[in-house]
Write a structure and sequence with these properties.
The complex is a heterodimer of chains A (458) and B (210). Chain A has 14 helices and five strands. With 458 residues, chain A is α+β, with helices and mostly antiparallel strands. In chain A, β3 (205-208) and β4 form a beta hairpin. In chain A, α11 packs antiparallel against α12, α12 packs antiparallel against α14 and α13 packs antiparallel against α14 (398-457). By secondary structure, chain B is mainly alpha-helical. Chain B is 90% helix and 0% strand. Chain B is built from six helices and no strands. In chain B, α2 packs antiparallel against α3 (63-81) and α2 (17-57) runs parallel beside α5. Classes of the chains: A alpha+beta (458), B mainly alpha (210). The A-B interface holds A 263, 266-267, 273, 339, 372, 398, 402, 405-406, 409-410, 412-413, 416-417, 419-420, 423-424, 426-427, 430-431, 434-435, 438, 441-443, 445-450, 452-453 and B 61, 64-65, 68-76, 78-79, 86-87, 89-90, 93-94, 97-98, 100-101, 104-105, 107-108, 111-112, 114-116, 118-119.
């Protein structure tokens, strides 16, 4: 198929070639006049173009001349500017020299004054920082503002400002040595704000309504300490508030300007301390309470017994409401038996009465002995916890160890403070019961003898 | 004159509140001890002679009843001699415990300070440390000083009581001899020695218990 189309194209090309040889003589013969016109036309056109070129050339030449003229112009302008620059440079240099000269003169004439203004700014800044926390400046906010501005300003302070600062410092000095009363905003522990009569003692402490306050820096505002010092100190504060001018009063002053009072807020109360003892602390306290109740009950019973025995000692007849009376009754019922048998019966009666007098005392003694042991247990438990914290977190953070250590210490303290009073109470009750037992044991016989004698005599 | 008082004041302030309790205990303890010595040296001889005078006025009695009355009198004297010894012993036992309590409260104080200012401030901790050590020392000193005297007082009291018993018994025998009851003297002696040994035994038992 392709071979066929290739052959077809070759034949077509050959035919066209033959045709081109056959045509030209026919065309030349028919247009001789058209060629002349064409020539004329070409000539005309060439002439036109020449003219246009000439015009263009002229134009270019004129342009070139204009540009040259402009260059000339610019050059002369540049030259003029350069001249001017030179002139200005000279003037600038001259001015610079004058300036340096003048500055030197200024410095010379200012002398130590510049240094002084620096000192004033620095001092104003220092005093501002210091007076922010000063109780003597609490009711003078404009003075604080003035000092702040003075320390920040770049301008030289005026004479009046310098004098005002000086007087302010003196005022603070005098004010910090006085006991003053003024109105301030007091924030109570529950968050409510009240305007109260605040009494300040120098620059150290402030009180309102007999309660200590802490000062909020830079404002006429106070916080009432949520935890106050001991009652005696509060009483002194109240008395100071009621004192008339010129009177001398005692007052518990915090010389650290509130730092000690701030620590007071952090130190735990008794109840918080007890809570640090955790379960073991509560067990110890429970045992202590139990021992106390036991003591009260037993001691009351012993006192009643004592009363009755004393009454029995005075009375003639044997009363059945007390141990001695019951022993004497034994002798009454065994009136006719021989002395040995009577003595044995008597001993038996005494032995029966003794446990009633000594009941509960041993328990109190055991509680007094157990309480320190429980304290020791609490110590060990707390230390175990501490060492576990050390194993996990290392010794870097004392806060993590604090819980265990406070448990260890508080339980020991609780154990001892329960044991010592119980020891005394046991001693008291034991002395009482021993006295009664002695009366029964040793004097019982003698009393019986007196009884018998009286009976025989009467 | 002022200087020692100031020193004492400083000592008490450094020791904290527990030291005051120890001071109170020491004062009570020494008051009791001095009272005991006063009783041994002054009161007891007077009481003994009063009892002897009373007994000498008694009419002659049956021996059993006389012995019972003797026992009663001796018991009263003995009670007078050993009255506050239990309290003294309790106070002595409480002193080291109070010292220990002081140690613990002092250590709590030290740990409070550590909580506030860290371990870098030994000066601040010093107050707590002295609160911890001074009561311990004071408690031990008070206890040891009282301990010797309490033992001496107890022994002295026993000795006085036995002496009183002997004296009264001799008086009784004397009275009986005067009354002309000689025949059963030996029997009485043997019974009495039995009674004495029994009493001695109970006294020993009571000391062991305490």
């Amino acid at each position: 198929m392709t071979r066929f189309s290739g052959t077809f194209a070759a034949i077509l090309a050959a035919l066209t070639f033959l045709g081109s040889f056959a045509c030209p003589p026919v065309i030349a013969q028919s247009s001789t006049v058209g060629l002349d016109a064409f020539l004329e036309q070409v000539r005309q056109r060439a002439k036109n173009e020449e003219r246009i070129n000439q015009e263009r050339e002229n134009e270019f030449r004129a342009d070139l001349d204009a540009a040259r003229a402009r260059i000339q112009e610019a050059r002369s302008a540049m030259r003029a500017e350069q001249d001017r620059q030179e002139r200005l440079l000279t003037a600038y240099d001259a001015n610079e020299a004058t300036l340096t000269e003048l500055e030197a003169t200024l410095r010379e004439e200012q002398g130590g004054l510049g240094e002084m203004f620096g000192v004033v700014r620095q001092s104003a800044g220092d005093f501002h920082a210091q007076f922010l926390g000063s109780l003597a400046m609490v009711d003078k906010p404009e003075a604080l503002e003035f000092l702040g501005q003075l320390s920040d300003s770049r301008a030289l302070p005026s004479m009046a400002e310098l004098e005002r600062m000086w007087i302010l410092v003196l005022e603070e000095m005098v004010g910090s040595g006085r006991v003053d009363r003024f109105v301030g905003e007091v924030v109570l522990p529950d968050g409510s704000k009240l305007a109260k009569d605040v009494l300040r003692i120098g620059a150290f402490n402030s009180v309102a309504d007999g309660r200590y306050l802490s000062h909020v820096q830079g404002r006429n505002q106070f916080l009432e300490l949520p935890r106050q010092p001991q009652g005696g100190h509060l009483r002194l504060a109240r008395e100071l508030e009621q004192a008339s001018p010129g009177e001398t009063r005692f007052f518990a002053l915090d010389p650290s300007r509130g730092a000690i009072l701030a620590h007071l807020v952090q130190s735990p109360t008794l109840i918080e301390r007890i809570k640090q003892g955790r379960e073991i602390g509560l067990i110890i306290l429970g045992l202590g309470l139990f021992g106390l109740i036991l003591f009260v009950v037993r001691f009351a019973i012993l006192i009643v017994m004592d009363r009755r025995i004393q009454r029995q000692l005075r009375s003639e007849t044997a009363l059945p409401d007390n141990p001695l009376g019951r022993i004497l009754q034994v002798s009454g019922t065994n009136h006719s038996v021989d002395p040995e048998t009577l003595e044995i019966r008597l001993d038996e009666a005494v032995l029966k009465e003794i446990p009633r007098l000594e009941r509960g005392l041993r328990t109190i003694k055991i509680l007094a002995a157990v309480a320190p042991l429980l304290g020791l247990l609490g110590t060990v438990v707390g230390m175990i916890e501490t060492f576990q914290a050390i194993t996990l977190f290392g010794t870097g953070d004392p806060q993590l160890m604090a819980g265990g250590i406070s448990q260890a210490l508080v339980t020991t303290a609780l154990g001892l403070s329960v044991a010592i009073p119980l020891l005394f109470l046991h001693s008291l009750a034991a002395a009482k019961s021993r006295g009664l037992v002695n009366i029964l044991e040793e004097q019982g016989a003698g009393l019986l003898a007196e009884h018998i004698q009286k009976a025989r005599g009467g | 004159m002022i200087e020692p008082i100031l020193n004492l004041q400083r000592f008490l302030d450094a020791g904290g509140p527990v030291l005051w309790v120890i001071l109170l205990v020491a004062v009570v303890l020494w008051t009791l001890i001095i009272e005991r010595y006063w009783h041994h040296w002054r009161v007891f001889p007077r009481e003994l002679s009063a009892v002897r005078a009373r007994r000498s006025r008694l009419p002659p009695q049956e021996r059993r009843i006389a012995r019972m009355l003797l026992r009663k009198d001796v018991s009263e004297l003995r009670q007078g001699l050993t009255r506050s010894l239990t309290a003294i012993r309790t106070l002595i036992a409480a002193c080291p415990l109070l010292g220990l309590l002081g140690t613990v409260t002092g250590m709590i104080h030290v740990f409070d300070v550590i909580g506030f200012s860290g371990t870098g401030n030994p000066r601040a901790m010093a107050a707590g440390v002295s609160m911890a050590t001074i009561p311990t020392m004071a408690g031990l000193v008070v206890a040891l000083s009282g301990f010797v005297f309490s033992i001496r007082l107890q022994r002295g009291g026993e000795a006085h009581a036995r002496e009183a018993e002997d004296v009264l018994k001799r008086d009784m025998l004397e009275g009986e001899r005067k009354a002309g009851v000689r025949s059963q003297e030996s029997g009485v002696r043997s019974q009495e020695s039995g009674v004495r040994s029994k009493k001695h035994l109970t006294a020993v038992i009571s000391t062991v218990e305490q």
